[in-house]
Amino acid sequence: MPSKKLQVLIFLVLAITCNAVQIGQEKIPEPATNISQVVINKPMIVEINTNKIITVKPKKITFNPNNINEISNISYEDLLILLKNTGMEDMTAALIQSEQEYGINALFLVGLIALESGWEQSNRARRTNKMGGVAVYSNMSRGAVYKSKGESVLHIAKFIRRDYLNEDGLYHNGTSIWNINTHYCIGKNWSKNIINIINELLAKISISY
C-alpha cells in the first residue's frame, strides 16, 4: 500500500492532468429537459412540440371598387353562403373559376350578374342562359345563347378582362368599376347598383372588407 505522502502526490498529479485536458475545451451542455424547445445556434429556436396549436389567420374577403383586378379571396363555401336564397347558388363554382382564370373580383361578377340577369330571373337568363348584358344593345336584342349559365359567366369574365381591364383592351379606361362603367353602360347607376348589391350581400353574412 502506498505511503500517505505518495497518495497525496498521486492525487495532485491527477488533478493537474484533468485541468490540462479541460483547458480550451467548451463545456458540453446538458440535454434539454423541455422537448418543446430545441435551441440551435442561439437565438434561433425550433419548436417541435406537436401539441402546440398554430392558428393561421384566413385571408380577408375583399371587394375594392377602385380595382376590380384585386381578387376577393372568397372561398367556395363562403360564396355559397353569400348567395343562399338569392336564386344564384348554382353560379358559385363558375364565379370562383372566373376569378381564378381571369383575375377578376368574384364579388364584382356577382353584383354584375345579379343586376343584369335580374337574379337569374330575366327572360334571357331563363331561355338562353345569358347572365349579363354582353352584346345586348336594346330590349329587343337577343344576345348570345349559351349551353349553360356557367358558360355565360366565364364568357362575361373573359370579355371584361380582354376588353376593359387589359391595358391594350378596346375599352380600357382604368381598373375601377367606374372606369368600366364609362364604356360598358350608359349612365352611372350601373356601377352604383352593383356596389349596393355587393354591400347588401356582405352585410348579410357579417363580413367586412
User: Main sheet: which strands, in order across?
Assistant: 1-2
User: What is the overall pLDDT average?
Assistant: 77
Shape: globular
CATH topology of the domain at 76-204: Lysozyme
Instruction: Outline the low-pLDDT stretches.
Output: 12-49
- Indicate the CATH class of the domain at 76-204: Mainly Alpha
Question: In what range is the share of β-strand residues?
Answer: under 5%
Write the layout of secondary structure elements.
Layout: H1 4-22, E1 37-39, E2 45-47, H2 76-82, H3 92-102, H4 106-117, H5 123-128, H6 149-165, H7 177-184, H8 189-204
Antiparallel strand pairs: 1-2
Please tell me about this protein's structure.
The chain has 8 helices and 2 strands, in the order αββααααααα. With 209 residues, the chain is mainly alpha-helical. It has a domain at 76-204: Orthogonal Bundle (Lysozyme), CATH 1.10.530. Strands 1-2 form a two-stranded antiparallel ribbon. β1 (37-39) and β2 (45-47) form a beta hairpin. α4 (106-117) packs across α8. The longest helix is centred in the N-terminal third of the chain and has 19 residues, at 4-22. It is globular, with a radius of gyration of 34 Å. It starts with a helix and ends in a 5-residue tail after the last helix. The model is unreliable at 12-49 (pLDDT under 50).
Keywords:
Lysozyme; mainly alpha; 209 residues; 8 helices
Provide a short characterization of the protein structure:
The protein has 209 residues and is mainly alpha-helical. The protein has a domain at 76-204: Lysozyme, CATH 1.10.530.10. It contains eight helices and two strands.
